[in-house]
Design a protein that fits this description.
Layout (H helix, E strand, L loop, with lengths): L4 H8 L4 H14 L1 H9 L1 H13 L1 H9 L2 H8 L9 H14 L5 H21 L5 H31 L2 E4 L5 E3 L2 E6 H4 L10 E6 L4 E2 L14
Antiparallel strand pairs: 1-2, 1-5, 3-4
Helix pairs in contact: 2-3, 2-4, 2-5, 4-5, 4-8, 7-9, 8-9
């Protein structure tokens, strides 16, 4: 393809013009009809090139998953922070549409899709540092919550609910939590941060079993 002079001028102003040019060439080679549609929106197309120039990893994400580009085009308001409740709802819908892949792959893909939006907000200076670390923390918290819910459901299906007895001998259910420490605990996560977490359960006891296998009752631990 032949790049227009306006496009060349814009690319040359980016931090990595070679990466941006390579991205746009591959985009037209691999998705010619869709790329022509994206190119018609000059502002949006410049956002794609900006992402590609700042992050080769996210550029590859867009090339591997072109549907994410369409999704990013629909995410028009880059001034807003997505709260955890909204992310959980969107992750639930995303998981429903990708039920054929493993939970781990699905969560990784959702994370990369959301990072496109967050990183673009950063590149466009549409968010403060505090807002960005808040968003990254919300995203990590959302992924942990979804993973916890999925794992808890599988474990209770296999072993039954984790039971405990109170002082009067009445049965109750032990609780489980993931405690975030460090940067995630203070909602100050950055792009390169690991997450420091601790698993806690409330009380010793045994699970109720699954009602089928007599050996399916295990310790709460």
């Amino acid at each position: 393809m032949v790049l227009s002079q306006n496009l060349i001028s814009f690319i040359n102003q980016l931090p990595d013009p070679i990466a941006a040019e390579g991205f746009v060439v591959r985009l037209f080679e691999e998705y010619p009809s869709r790329a022509k549609v994206w190119e018609r929106d000059a502002l949006f197309f410049s956002n794609l090139l900006t992402l590609a120039a700042y992050s080769p990893w996210l550029a590859e994400t867009m090339l591997q998953q072109p549907d994410y580009i369409d999704w990013l085009k629909r995410e028009r308001n880059f001034q807003l922070i997505k709260p955890k409740e909204q992310l959980l709802e969107e992750l639930g819908k995303f998981a429903g549409r990708h039920s054929s892949i493993s939970e781990q792959v699905m969560l990784a893909r959702f994370k990369r899709r959301e990072l496109l939006r967050i990183y673009l907000r950063d590149c466009l200076r549409a968010a403060t540092l505090i807002e960005l670390t808040d968003e990254l923390s919300n995203l990590a918290d959302t992924l942990l919550q979804h993973a916890l819910n999925a794992c808890y459901q599988r474990l209770t299906n296999r072993f039954g609910l984790p039971h405990v007895l109170d002082a009067r001998g009445r049965k109750g259910t032990a609780k489980f939590a993931i405690i975030a420490m460090g940067k995630l605990g203070s909602c100050e996560l950055n792009y390169a941060s690991d997450i420091d977490i601790m698993f806690l359960y409330s009380e010793e006891g045994t699970t109720a079993g699954n009602g089928v296998d007599p050996d399916s009752s295990i310790s709460n631990r």
